[in-house]
Amino acid sequence: MDLSTLRVDFPLIAGRPDLVYLDSAATSQKPRRVIESLKRFYETLNANVHRGAYRLSAEATEAYEEARKRLARFLNANPQEIVFVRNTTEAMNLVAYAWGLRNLKEGDEVLVTEMEHHAGLVPWHLVAGLTGARIRAIPLTEEGRLDLSALDTLLTERVKVVSVVHMSNVLGTINPVAEIARRAKEVGALVVVDGAQSAPHLPVNVKALGADFFALSGHKMLGPTGAGVL
Ligand code: PLP
Fold it and tell me: Of the candidates 14, 44, 75, which is a domain's last residue?
């Protein structure tokens, strides 16, 4: 990988050879193409999407729907399954409040892991407080991996949701989501995957993972801030 060539693609660092940016997992810098394409949209295509009966609006809608199709291909999902949100935090809140609030009740359990990001934890805690459901967590081993042997006792019929981070933002651990999802389905639980760190780094196939919901943030993967996907 030729880093000096790559730097040219990123206007913010291209002009600053002194700057070494190592916080991409928190938010990535934006390549020229992304900045230009945002500019192009506002300069040539901006109009009300899905709500206007005139040509510019139809073109904006077409571009918007093309983005949905691309995201679907990227995740191996169906276009109609792509919900645009602002980021992973909003996606996780959307699932917890839209699905959890309506379906969870006292006696139910939400199974998370001890390595969740706050974005995958706080929404469930708040919704558990409102519904009487209980939160339980898959513990970690000494090596910082999920202790899957705990699933034998944790995964019971009481568990209605298993919400798990695909790749840890703290440890870099890649969790065996497909295996966890398979076990979750055996007890009829929904599987929610926080893909904020995996989508930028791994090929993601939501069908192969067995994810009912998968969340990502555009700003962590070279995209614009304020554009995420559930
Ligand atoms: N989940 C993980 C694993 C993360 O690393 C982050 C951000 O660092 C988030 C969720 C939250 O992402 P956002 O701030 O884009 O909502």
Answer: 75
